What does this fold into?
Amino acid sequence: MSSRKWLITGAGGMVGRDLAAALASRDEAFVALTKSDLDITDSRRVDDCVAAHAPSIIVNCAAYTAVDRAEEEQAAANAINGSSVELLAQAANDAGALLVQISTDFVFDGAKREPYEVTDAPAPVSAYGCSKYLGEIAAQHAEKRLIVRTSWLFGVHGNNFVEAIRNQIRKGTDPLRVVDDQRGRPTYTPHLADAIIRLAVQDARGVVHYADEDECTWFDFARAIAEETNANVTVKPVASSEFPRPATRPAYSVLSTERYERLTGARPESWREGLREYLSVRA
Ligand SMILES: NC(=O)c1ccc[n+]([C@@H]2O[C@H](COP(=O)([O-])OP(=O)(O)OC[C@H]3O[C@@H](n4cnc5c(N)ncnc54)[C@H](OP(=O)(O)O)[C@@H]3O)[C@@H](O)[C@H]2O)c1
It folds into this structure.
């Protein structure tokens, strides 16, 4: 067993649960704190918890993730996704720990038509995206920091696009109308968990993008879900303008994983493989 000790915040969430499982399967020492164990907006509790557990790596999986609601609740989103990260950064410094902050493709405006590099400047177009960018800035207070941006997550312990499509199929919706003018990289959360562990263990620092291969649109992703579930349904491509939502999504948010590949020597996993595993695990 290594001398590493991990502390996970937001451990009841979709990524937090898969990260805890991935650490357990590797016999890593870790403590997994859910929101009821540790509210990351509570500065005293953050200091006390980090001091008590003395981790060498803190992975912040806690976040305000309601993208549309954030437009109305910007203060709450900023407090959880922004200011709290500074508290964690300070606590990480006191403990001499690495802070791993999870961020998002939504920090970009989506104006590019080629993959976003880690050196591209964030320009969020939603309140949620702004709050996550604040979190990246706050993470800079950590002397040892790793910011892992990822995208279009799906995992068995959370609500996600795969479940939304399966629910539509179960309800008998036909045709399924799915937007075909937003491009990104779906990512299976156990793959993200593996990537985070690989990066942290080899002391990667700075900003790294991890997303599964390959890029696609939501329409392509929905078609794959229909195929893999043998659903007898027509999937129809539509424009985002047909589904107006409170928060603007970037039209193009494909993350380049070149730095991840260079640092780890590993290729990103396939989301299609992840989807098959997901469907075999989640009833
Ligand atoms: N989902 C995506 O598609 C996506 C894409 C890119 C990046 N990300 C990022 O990935 C990370 C993990 O997201 P996820 O998908 O796992 O989200 P999630 O399932 O919503 O998990 C977030 C967890 O944080 C908890 N939490 C909320 N406020 C908290 C607080 N003040 N203190 C402690 N815990 C708190 C939530 O608890 P409650 O549920 O009880 O509030 C929840 O368990 C986030 O940083 C997110 O921004 C997500």
